[in-house]
Automatic annotation (TrEMBL), chain A:
Keywords: Membrane, Transmembrane, Transmembrane helix. This is Uncharacterized protein. The keyword Transmembrane helix applies. It comes from the Bacteria. The chain crosses the membrane at residues 32-53.
UniProtKB/TrEMBL annotation, chain B:
PANTHER family: LEUCINE ZIPPER PROTEIN 4, SPORE GERMINATION PROTEIN. Residues 507-519 have a biased composition (Polar residues). The keyword Transmembrane applies. This is Spore germination protein.
UniProtKB/TrEMBL annotation, chain C:
The lineage of its organism: Bacteria, Bacillati, Bacillota, Bacilli, Bacillales. Belongs to the amino acid-polyamine-organocation (APC) superfamily. Spore germination protein (SGP) (TC 2.A.3.9) family. It is a multi-pass membrane protein. NCBIfam families: 2A0309. This is Endospore germination permease. Keywords: Germination, Membrane, Transmembrane, Transmembrane helix, Transport. It comes from Tumebacillus lacus. The chain crosses the membrane at residues 12-32, 38-59, 79-100, 120-139, 146-165, 185-207, 219-241, 268-289, 301-320, 336-355. Pfam families: Spore_permease.
Length: 77, 532, 366
């Protein structure tokens, strides 16, 4: 499991280095910041998933918010 | 010898060493009135060229002259009759013996041959001598004359080996660019057929000609072709393949983006569709562009046979394109992953046949496909007499013995042979090769992910094909982007009288090929034409 | 020829939208709650869907060449533009991960039961990233190359099932009243028809800006017709069983048999699913990357494609614990959740835009 996480993070790091290098040559600072934020997010979530830790899903709050509407309009026995 | 680095010129001109520098200085000079000095310069330029001939003659009025040529490159008989003879026998008019007058009057009265030109600099002189001219230098004149006397025989016009048709002209291009251009000119006898000439290759000085029909070919494509041709910098061009690789749109793709042909009739027909032809001296293969995916599946003969037959043959080709591309990978996918998808009877016989085979289907398929590629390559390279031996060995040893020994399964042999036949139905060789190459990644994908892998591979191919362009024309045109009108020549082969318009992609400005309503019938011309 | 501005043709947009509409909806059940009356639901949903499509395409047509977040920026200022951009960033991201989840789920269930999920997920992700990277022009041409296959596949399979049809399966009509039919209609309106709202990031690339409404409505109607055919066909074969099947279309293909010779044609359903699903995921990822580029005012969307694709794949894995949860959410929460994105924001922007225009013409006195 640890090997998997390390491999995954290595993969993310390699991708980032490869892409950030091309951005650096074009002097795109803002893009680099956004890119690195997203990539580290992906790295973090991926590592958590590989470690078997449950990542909070956005589905339950959405369901909690919208299912009552459905129940209200189309009541089911 | 010490290399003096001149540094790279912009665009990467080759480095010159000291000797080349000296030669370049020689070449940069103009002819002088001193014949001895001219002689020395030329001797220096052609130093160690044993095929270079330079002999002195004395003209009818006692003037020293030099004739220069490359032995074998010009017709010596003609040289004697048309140049040396007149020079030695006809005296110049007296008033014209001034320095400049000599050459003019020589050209006008002694050598009244239309192909005589005057030269003043050594570069042009050298170039002319090297391309089959004889040069004449006279004492006291700072000019020379060159006479075109090309004397070597090009190969005679033969039936093209690579593209033989059952019905159609039996002439193919040769290695000589003049012959080739004339072959096309004889098919299109119009002043609108334009021939633009380029010289490419710093040492080979290869003649390259750009042919198109003015008013039909798109000006934007032409400008692009000219631009790409003129940016080529290379030492030598020996086949149109060099040009093809240097001017195509995307180098990293297995798919050809420029068509080549050995047939003047195919070239002429394509020129009339607004395409552009590039002729290269020294090769019978003429480049045609722009090119689309579908041209790879069309043969010139489609237009010589009845349209229904040609349509049917095209459909067969499309079907076999799929077989050539997908059959082995489908077999691997189905036998490895999706056995439930085979009808039961078939499954039984396949599994029975596969029982003895020691390899998994993926490995078996790869081995057999590679073997087939090897057999094909061996058959092509070997002389014809030995080539048949290869096919016997292939058929007997690989096919029969390997199956009997239980090393490969019989269905796999059937699959591979069918694939091989299918790949030979693709009329364009370079296109067929790219399809055959793509089979291998598809087999690998099928072996790892089954049907899903194959479909992923197909998506990759479609995405890639859709991203290709040939000189601005999308590669899958007219399917994507869609054009119902031009699909007439892709989905079917519409009858000649139905294809009244030229393809929009290549001839956007002048689209009408023929007036509509020419469907033949016994009544045609006696009754008013039906509306199309 | 170097860098030319990316453009899609009307036919390209049409086929892209058509495939996007039908890609997953021909395979997964839609409006299952309506039972055998699903055809009424689809027809009602088509009407409601037309309203949604009309709203956003009217908005985009009046601001040619601008995506929805840029329109909001022009009408309501910088921050409003960013907020709208963020909304659609999330919506297309969420939608993309749902489609991806569905995609992998189906393949895992019917084609590759013993293959680990990542081995299914990553190949498609790689191809999607490549396609989105190449741009919307290539994607639209890809749609043009495959849409005929999809249509033919649907038509031919329906013809081949003709001998299995039982017309009594469509009866009784409306036996449970209008309520389930309406609920089904709402579900179908928001999935798949309303989802085309994320084309608000693709339509700006259209080369004929005055054709937006016509093309999107035409795509909606063609897609609706195909869906109607597919789902009525499934009902005609399976009757009441249809709504209980996970993949009715796939199951129906197993019934195709012609003279004991042509059978086992399910692979066609799988191939269609992959070819068309690819478009759906790619469009979502494209819209997602585009909106992110708008929100952050970046110079291009391409750099965000890989990280967004990775995140999308991850969300697709942890958003639901199981398939039942997916179906439950899709049926009950998804319609209400997506209505603000599909009609709310576009309608509001349209009203503001009309109001602005009126005000401007009044002040200018023209």
């Amino acid at each position: 499991m640890i090997a998997q996480i390390v491999l995954f993070l290595l993969f993310i790091a390699l991708l980032s280095i490869f892409q950030v290098r091309s951005l650096l040559s074009q002097q795109k600072k803002k893009e680099i910041a956004v890119y690195l934020t997203l990539m580290s997010g992906a790295g973090l979530i991926g590592a958590l998933m590989l470690a078997g830790i449950e990542v909070p899903s956005p589905a339950p709050p959405i369901r909690a918010m919208f299912e009552p509407i459905s129940k209200m309009i189309f009541p089911k026995p | 010898m010490n290399r003096i680095r001149r540094g790279r010129k912009k665009g990467g001109a080759p480095l010159l060493d000291a000797r080349e520098l000296r030669l370049e200085d020689d070449l940069a000079q103009n002819l002088t009135e001193d014949l001895v000095k001219n002689h020395a310069l030329i001797q220096d330029i052609f130093r160690n060229c044993s095929d270079f001939v330079c002999h002195e003659i004395v003209s009818a009025d006692g003037r020293k002259m030099l004739t220069l040529y490359i032995e074998g490159l010009i017709n010596t008989e003609q040289l004697t009759q048309q140049v040396i003879g007149p020079l030695q026998q006809t005296p110049l008019p007296k008033h014209d013996t001034t320095a400049d007058g000599t050459i003019t009057s020589l050209q006008e009265s002694v050598l009244p041959n239309s192909s005589v030109k005057t030269v003043t600099d050594l570069t042009t002189l050298t170039q002319s001598v090297l391309s089959g001219h004889a040069a004449v230098l006279a004492e006291g004149a700072a000019q020379g004359l060159v006479v075109s006397l090309q004397g070597w025989k090009p190969r005679s016009i033969e039936d093209p080996q690579g593209e033989s048709y059952i019905r159609g002209p039996r002439e193919g291009f040769t290695e000589d660019i003049r012959t080739n251009a004339i072959l096309i000119r004889r098919k299109l006898q119009t002043n609108r057929l334009k021939v633009e000439s380029f010289t490419i290759g710093e040492l080979s000085n290869t003649k390259v000609e750009l042919l198109y029909v003015e008013g039909i070919a798109s000006e934007t494509i032409l400008a692009e072709v000219r631009r790409r041709l003129s940016r080529i910098q290379i030492d030598g061009i020996f086949e149109s393949g060099y040009i093809e690789e240097l001017i195509e749109d995307s180098p990293y793709t297995p798919f050809p983006q420029i068509q080549n042909t050995e047939r003047p009739d195919v070239t002429a027909a394509n020129l009339l569709e607004g395409k552009v032809a590039i002729l290269v001296d020294g090769t019978p293969f003429v480049l045609l562009l722009p090119y689309t995916f579908w041209s790879g599946l069309q043969s010139g003969e489609d237009y010589y046979e009845r349209f229904m037959i040609s349509t049917l043959i095209r459909w067969v080709r499309y079907l076999f394109l799929f077989i050539a591309l997908l059959f082995p990978s489908l077999y691997v996918a189905v036998t490895t992953f999706h056995q439930e998808m085979i009808p039961t009877n078939l499954l039984l016989s396949i599994s029975e046949a596969r029982e003895a085979s020691p390899f998994p289907a993926l490995v078996e398929a790869l081995i057999m496909e590679v073997t087939f590629e090897a057999l094909r390559e061996a058959g092509v390279r070997l002389p014809k007499q030995v080539g048949s031996a290869i096919s016997i060995v292939g058929a007997l040893v690989i096919g029969q013995a390997a199956v009997q020994a239980g090393i490969v399964s019989a269905p796999m042999v059937i699959i591979v042979s069918l694939t091989a036949i299918a790949s030979f139905t693709i009329p364009r060789f370079n296109f067929a090769v790219s399809i055959r190459i793509l089979r291998f990644p598809l087999i690998l994908l099928a072996g790892t992910l089954g049907l899903y892998g194959i479909t992923i591979g197909l998506i990759c191919m479609l995405i890639h094909l859709n991203s290709l362009r040939s000189f601005g024309v999308p590669y899958l045109y007219p399917v994507a982007p869609f054009s119902m009108r031009d699909l007439k020549d892709v989905l079917v082969r519409a009858p000649i009288w139905k294809m009244t318009l030229r393809p929009h992609s290549t001839a956007p400005e002048n689209e009408t090929r023929m007036p509509s309503g020419q469907m033949p019938s016994p009544d045609r011309g006696t009754k008013p034409d039906r509306k199309e | 020829m170097g860098s030319h501005r990316e453009q899609i043709s009307t036919a390209g947009l049409w086929s892209l939208m058509l495939i996007f509409n039908v890609a997953s909806a021909i395979t997964v059940p839609i409006g299952a709650v309506a039972g055998q009356d699903v055809w009424i639901s689809i027809l009602l949903a088509l009407a409601a869907g037309s309203l949604i499509v009309w709203t956003y395409s009217r908005l985009l047509e009046s601001h040619p060449g601008k995506a929805i977040s840029e329109i909001a920026e022009g009408l309501l200022g910088n921050w409003a533009g960013r907020v709208v951009g963020l909304f659609y960033l999330w919506y297309s991201f969420h939608l993309g991960s749902l489609v991806l989840r569905d995609f992998v789920e189906f393949l895992s269930a019917v084609a590759l039961p013993r293959t680990p999920i990542p081995a299914i997920l990553f190949p498609i992700l790689a191809v999607v990233v490549w396609g989105v990277y190449l741009g919307v022009e290539v994607l639209s041409r890809y749609a043009q190359t495959i849409y005929l296959f999809v249509i033919f596949e649907v038509l031919v399979s329906s013809l081949l099932l003709f001998n299995q049809f039982d017309y009594r399966n469509l009866l009784p009509v409306l036996d449970k009243g209008w309520s389930p039919v309406l609920e089904g209609a709402i579900q179908i309106t928001t999935f798949p028809f309303g989802e085309t709202v994320i084309f608000a990031f693709i339509i700006p690339f259209l080369n004929q800006t005055d054709q937006v409404k016509k093309i999107s409505l035409r795509a909606l109607l063609t897609g609706g017709a195909l869906l109607l055919l597919v789902h009525v066909r499934n009902i005609l074969v399976f009757g009441g069983l249809t709504s209980k099947l996970t993949y009715p279309t796939f199951s129906v293909y197993q019934y195709i048999s012609l003279f004991d010779f042509l059978d086992r044609v399910e692979p066609l359903a799988i191939v269609t699913w992959i070819l068309a699903g690819y478009i759906e995921i790619s469009v979502c990822l494209f819209a997602c990357a585009m909106s992110l580029a708008h929100v952050t005012k970046s110079s291009g969307y391409r750099i965000y494609v890989i990280p967004l694709a990775l995140l999308m794949a991850q969300l697709s894995r942890f958003i639901y614990n199981n398939h039942a949860e997916l179906i439950e959410t899709a049926a009950n929460a998804w319609p209400w959740y997506s209505l603000p994105f599909q009609i709310g924001i576009p309608l509001m922007l349209l009203l503001v835009s009309v109001f602005h225009k009126r005000k401007r013409t009044r002040t200018k006195g023209e």
